[in-house]
Amino acid sequence: MIKTANFDFYAPTKVVFGKGSVDRLGALVKAQGCSKVLIHYGGKSALKSGLIDRVRAALDAEGIGHVSLGGVVPNPHLGLVYEGIELGKKEGVDFILAVGGGSVIDSAKGIGYGIADPEQGDVWDFYVKKRKSTACLPVGVVLTIAAAGSEMSNDSVVTNEKTGIKRGHGNDVSRAKFAVMDPELTMTLPDYQSMSGCTDIMMHTMERYFTNGGNMELTDSIAEGLLRTVKKYTQIIHAEPDNYEARAEVMWAGSLSHNGLTGCGAAERDFASHILEHELGGMFDVTHGAGLAAIWGTWARYVYKDCLDRFVKFAVNVMEVTPGATDEETALKGIEAMEDFYRSIGMPTSIHELGIDYTDEQIEIMAHNAIIASGGKRGSAKVLYEDDFVKIYKAARDDR
Ligand code: NZQ
Ligand code: ZN
Q1: CA–CA separation, 203 vs 19, rounded Å?
Q2: Minimal CA–CA distance to 263: which of 14, 12, 9?
Q3: Which run of H or E residues covers position 28?
Q4: Which ligand is nearest to the CA of 167?
Q5: pLDDT recorded at residue 1
Q6: Which of 97, 289, 367, 383 could form a cystine bridge with 199, CB 3.0-4.6 A?
Q7: Phi and psi dihedrals of 168, rounded to 5?
Q8: Residue 98 · residue 105 · CB < 8 Å
Q9: Which of 193, 262, 280 to mutate to test the pocket of ligand 1 (most atoms within 8 A of CB)?
Q10: With bands split at pLDDT 50, 70 and 90, how would you rate the model's confidence at 27?
């Protein structure tokens, strides 16, 4: 029987990487043949660093018209996506330039879906799977944080701030045309954001690694190499935030970890930890990577017996633990080592450490919403249902 699953790999984004790469922005936008650009950005970091001024100057130099919309918050709000759609239509923009991280890029993709929607309906329909998207205005990226991987992924994750529901929508039409990635831009990040970003990067590969079925030796080697590399350079960034090589290693890993490369050949992605976290993000506005760290250990202990070979491989090849007397012991040593790593970089390993304290009623709501978002079940390491989600949320709060 063939073990390797068939796969599509599609990575159309042009990556322009390295020191000074922002200087090439004008030419990159011009090559898109657009006439008016919506510059989309976040709260204040890109303004404060002068990056937005540099972006505007680059477009001016090429004679490209532009309007701006800032104010994207982490766990980006649907309300601003609506605002961007209105503004974009009114101004006749034909290109969106996201200057920021995953939240800004995801908001930009949401705006792009809304403007290009042939039915001109409610863009939220796509996120709640009411309708299928078919088009998206072209999006370009100037990345300022290595984390979500949205610069090369086909995903957009948006929070409906009125209901606290956070949902993702994926379609290849939204993949960025280009991503400008200068590791130096990430040096102004607060440590907590850098560490959350590194956690998210590792998790995007782990969600593709802890799977039952498929799996190729080549993909595993890439995945394990990426995880070991990010683990090493995360600790260096934690100690030396201005270390360019470390920032560069992590930034490139962020894109490769979520562009599909580290899952080629696996039968299915797991992504249960992400679904569990998205509910925490929607309800409590937690930082995505920190939320993942807080829930991962509980998830891992809940599922590892159903995916033992992979957990043993992870323990030995990624966490580099000395094998225990049994496979179960080795797998558990790997999980503990991962949690020790999280602690060493200031990431939480329980809901309590995340600084929230949810009720049983809130658990029911999150588990229910998570299962709706998953279409009834989730996971490859172990297939999980609503009652499994309830148990994991409870254990992450009570047993840790
Ligand atoms: O708003 P500003 O002032 O820019 O501050 C941001 C924000 O507070 C700050 N920041 C970004 N670059 C900075 C900086 N501060 C100083 N210097 C810089 N150079 O960092 C904070 C976090 O930014 P955000 O964009 O939220 O970070 P991240 O890239 O981690 O994105 C998280 C969002 O992406 C989603 C998450 O769920 C979350 O909503 N994800 C998107 C995915 C995708 N589209 O493929 C996949 C992921 O799994 C994830 O779900
Ligand atoms: Zn993520």
Answers
A1: 27
A2: 9
A3: helix 25-30
A4: 1
A5: 58
A6: 289
A7: -105, 150
A8: yes
A9: 193
A10: very high
Asked whether the predicted pLDDT for residue 3 surpasses 80, the reply is no
Greatest alpha-carbon pair distance for the chain in Å reads 68
Query: Looking at the DSSP assignment, which residues form a beta bridge with residue 141?
Result: 98, 179
Coil, strand or helix: which one is 16? Answer: strand
Q: What is the pLDDT of residues 218-265, one digit of tens each?
A: 999 999 999 999 999 999 999 999 999 999 999 999 999 999 999 999
pLDDT in tens, 313-357: 999 999 999 999 999 999 999 999 999 999 999 999 999 999 999
Bridge partners, residue 39, by sequence:
68, 97
Q: Which of 134, 236, 247 is nearest to 188 (CA)?
A: 247
What whole-number distance in Å separates Cα of residue 306 and Cα of residue 265?
Answer: 19
Give the binding-site residues of ligand 1, using a 6 Å CB cut-off: 42-46, 74-75, 100-104, 106, 144-145, 147-150, 153, 155-157, 185-186, 188-189, 193, 197, 200, 258, 274, 281, 288
For residue 337 the two structure tokens come to: 């080592």
Say which residue the tokens 């020790």 belong to. 340
Q: How far is CA 308 from the centre of its chain?
A: 26
For residue range 118-153, what is the model confidence (pLDDT) as tens digits? 999 999 999 999 999 999 999 999 999 999 999 999
Averaged pLDDT of the chain: 97
Is residue 141 within a helix (H) or strand (E), and if so which, with residue range?
strand 139-143
119-140 exposure pattern, b = at least 16 Cβ within 10 A, e = fewer: eeeebbbbbeeeeebeebbbbb
**What pLDDT does residue 267 have?**
83
Residue pair 169/155 in contact (Cβ under 8 Å)? The answer is yes
- Looking at residue 242, what is its pLDDT? 98
pLDDT band for position 399 (50/70/90)?
confident
The residue type found at 78 is L
Q: Where are the alpha helices (DSSP H) in 240-385?
A: 244-257, 272-284, 288-303, 308-317, 327-344, 360-373
∠ CA 203-304-218 to the nearest 5 degrees? 55
